[in-house]
Amino acid sequence: MFFNFLAQANENVQPTFFEQWGSIIMIVVLLVVMYFFMIRPQKKQEKQIMDMRNNLQVGDEITTIGGIIGKIISIKDETVLIESSGDKTKIRLLKSAIKVVDVKAEDCE
Predict the structure, then answer these.
(1) Distance (Å, rounded) from C-alpha 79 to C-alpha 74?
(2) d(CA 106, CA 109)
(3) Residue range 43-83, pLDDT digits in tens
(4) Nearest to 95 by CA among 85, 105, 81
(5) Strand order in the sheet with 69-75
(6) Which residue in 83, 75, 53, 76 sits closest to 65, CA to CA?
């Protein structure tokens, strides 16, 4: 009997806007926050890395992902030839293996 009374009392009450759309709004807000704090910075960092790899020049001193340090002596499409150590050891690497440019060629001159 008590539950029937509650059901009859709630029949005439219209749900509010937030009750109807609240969960959808919260999911959209969560997705927007995730975009600005996770996805957007990652895309920006990837763009900076691609720009760095596309602007490599002969004479740049680089460090690879594996920790090899050397000086670029030749650049082809997707590979670079570096000279490492005092013995002038030459190593061919993919551009994607380059982590950072330590010293630009124009800074050495």
Answers:
(1) 9
(2) 6
(3) 999 999 999 999 999 999 999 999 999 999 999 989 999 99
(4) 81
(5) 89-94, 79-84, 69-75, 61-64, 98-103
(6) 53
Reduced to 3 states, what is the DSSP secondary structure of residue 61?
Answer: strand
Q: Which amino acid is at 68?
A: I
Residue-number span of the structural domain to which 82 is assigned: 57-108
Give 82-93 pLDDT, tens digit per residue.
999 888 899 999
Q: Do residues 30 and 65 share a domain?
A: no
Strand 69-75 relative to strand 61-64: parallel, antiparallel, unpaired? antiparallel
CATH number, residue 75: 2.30.30
Alpha-carbon span 102 to 39, nearest angstrom:
27
What single-letter DSSP state applies at residue 77?
A: S
